[in-house]
TrEMBL record, chains A, B:
Main location: cytoplasm
Family label: Belongs to the ArgJ family.
GO cellular component: cytoplasm
A Pfam family the protein falls into: ArgJ
Entry's Gene Ontology BP terms: L-arginine biosynthetic process; ornithine biosynthetic process
Superkingdom as given in the UniProt entry: Bacteria
Involved pathway(s): Amino-acid biosynthesis; L-arginine biosynthesis; L-ornithine and N-acetyl-L-glutamate from L-glutamate and N(2)-acetyl-L-ornithine (cyclic): step 1/1; Amino-acid biosynthesis; L-arginine biosynthesis; N(2)-acetyl-L-ornithine from L-glutamate: step 1/4
Binding site for substrate: T144, K170, T181, E268, N390, S395
Protein name: Arginine biosynthesis bifunctional protein ArgJ
Length: 395, 395
């Protein structure tokens, strides 16, 4: 498996345009497969699930097949009641008729302001403009306050065929004025059954997208969708088990992990990516829970913004979980400098470590010495800019 | 029951002094009853419980009796290993011998920097200076970065006797450099059995101290201790049930609630007290969970600092809980202006509401329309100052 320049896998097309939902920037796009693709999705756990999120979930759950997904930024179509639900359904139907396919093969995704209805006239005009191209404009059209587009492609070989997995996402926390955030789309020309893809996506999401936090909020629109159209493996059997499947799974995990970290790194106001690596946990759940508690602590986040080796706060975040701990056996290192051993502070060169903490990546290694399980989580620092972004009046 | 000027109840004495743990400010003090007092305590759920917290818990759990509690600021005696445990025990023994009482009648409390040992020489000198006075210096001696001392006294009548409950606390979130926070002490001359007092304290804490959040962190030293010496009711029966007990319980709840709100209001960097009142919940737990999720959301906190009526974030915080919700039936009001009805945004005068949000108290009323249960929680806004305080290098 190797990272390659971003490209659309065999049999996938896309486009992005300016539909007038935003002043100038691209705000609408789609991804289309030339044939129905086995598909899987994971969705926000927020009880106020937006209309497009709910519709895409229902659609994928029918046959785990999609051929196209339409997406827009600026308007989240969340907390929009019956009208919002009808608009999502109409958009799905319009895309289906334009492509001449069943509406149950069309996914719908929106991100943007909560509580505003989709302007269907603009959506219709925009849809008329969308073409089946190989351009990357859709990766920009989904952005809201992200500072840059987030894309990755990897290639790998199975059964002697070279397959590609490409992914893009938008994120960066719930943002002003009241943004519904975090959309991820992954397309591949590998051949995988939808149900199997679903199981794998759920498993890998728990180790990637579910282990990032910018401010602990779960948006109403979060979703990650994977489409596999098999076009690079037409004469080959489906990937379903064994070493060939593991190659695919490793490549997919790499793509999901990369995109998740990109979202954390681009968290609003963030100046640093923070990675917590927890080892020696009593269970996988404990390891992931502890890692996420550390990167989720406002105190740890603010201290790292201040480049302060404030281990008391890391200990505090660990202890605030219900993970099984040996209270006197916790070791902590910051960017490879050990600062806590057996739960006691070590003497270390504050100034030298402060220098290391100027890095834009902070690695917190925690050894719980209470088992064999590992977990990771990613977040960012808490900055003045975060407060500024989130305090500023909707404008 | 009425609030009165702060005073020590009958048979309680106190003092506060400068033991040299801090540069200038008072840093050590005690509260002493002339007779053993029935006592109860609640303690941090953080797994890294500080030595004094652990010792006080063990001591109270023996007979639910205390006659004195010694306290210091500046040094939390947390994450201090065996030496820290021995120091806490020595301090307890020293207080007992100075007062000529059993050490099992002495509680110990510390707050301050995590990971530093108590300077026992200064503790011993300080202890020698402490007197049994009626001054209020101990209410200052426990403060760390609190902007002011937090005290309250109430009086009420039972069996024709006037009783007093007085409380003081320190708080304001986990603060630089790595502070162990939130100590609460309540003393009364009412007569209540320790076990009953313990049950009542646990019940009331769940509705007061456990419903405040400054930054979601639970410190290693948090504790609330109540001592009841019965000196105002010497010839009366113990309060244990019926209307007389309800009078006492209401007074105690008022004291605990007042102190909890004072901690939220004085949260680091805070400019506003935020109160969430949740009604119409399916259960008491749901109501309290939703209320706490709202005041705990960074996005809500930052928006309120910006005086932004950003209801999408409140909906989002509500939906992120696992409370039973009727998704289309949530109403929200900010400082009495209704902005959401049936989970849909209402048209409201943004400028007029923005004026109201300039208040230093923000009331968020939420009606879930899904049951008969209520819950409240208190927090504060998220400000530049919070980040500044928590980012600044330990100094």
């Amino acid at each position: 498996m190797e990272e390659i320049d971003f490209k659309w896998p065999n049999g996938f097309f896309a486009d992005g345009i300016h539909a007038g939902l935003r002043k100038k920037r691209l705000d609408m796009g789609w991804v289309v497969s030339e044939v129905p693709a086995q598909s899987a999705g994971v969705y926000t756990t927020n009880q106020f699930q937006a209309a497009p999120t709910k519709l895409t979930k229902e659609t994928i759950n029918k046959k785990h097949e999609l051929q196209a997904i339409i997406m827009n930024s600026a308007v989240a179509n969340s907390c929009t009641g019956i009208e919002g639900t009808e608009n999502a359904h109409e958009e799905q139907a319009l895309v289906a008729s334009k492509l001449g396919i069943d509406k149950d093969l069309v996914g719908v995704a929106s991100t943007g302001v909560i509580g505003i209805q989709l302007p269907m006239d603009k959506i219709k005009q925009g849809l008329a403009e969308l073409q089946k191209t190989k351009n990357f404009k859709v990766t920009e059209a989904v952005l809201t306050t992200d500072t840059h587009s987030k894309t990755i492609s990897v290639s790998f070989e199975v059964f002697g065929k070279t397959c590609t997995i490409s992914g893009f996402c938008k994120g960066s926390g719930m943002i002003k004025p009241n943004m519904a955030t975090m959309l991820g789309f992954v397309v591949t020309d590998a051949k995988v059954a939808g149900q199997k893809l679903q199981e794998t996506l759920v498993e890998l999401t728990n180790e990637t997208f579910n282990q990032i936090t910018v401010d602990g909020d779960t948006s109403t629109n979060d979703m990650v969708v994977v489409m596999a159209n098999g076009q690079a493996m037409q004469d080959e059997p489906e990937l379903s088990e064994g070493s060939e499947y593991e190659i695919f799974k490793a490549a997919l995990k790499h793509v999901l992990g990369f995109l998740a970290k990109e979202i954390a790194r681009d968290g609003e106001g963030a100046t640093k990516l923070v990675e917590a690596n927890v080892n020696g946990a009593h269970s996988k759940e404990d390891a992931q829970h502890v890692a996420k508690a550390i990167v989720g602590s406002n105190l740890v986040k603010a201290a790292l913004f201040g480049e302060d080796a404030n281990w008391g706060r890391i200990i505090d975040a660990i202890g605030s979980t219900n993970a099984k701990l040996k209270i006197d056996s916790v070791d902590i290192a910051l960017n490879k400098t050990k600062i806590v051993e057996h739960s006691l502070g070590l003497d270390f060169d504050e100034e030298a470590l402060k220098e290391k903490l100027k890095s834009d990546e902070i690695i917190i290694d925690v050894e719980l010495n209470n088992g064999d399980f590992k977990g990771q989580a990613w977040g960012c620092d808490l900055t003045y800019k975060y407060v500024q972004i989130n305090a500023s009046y909707r404008s």
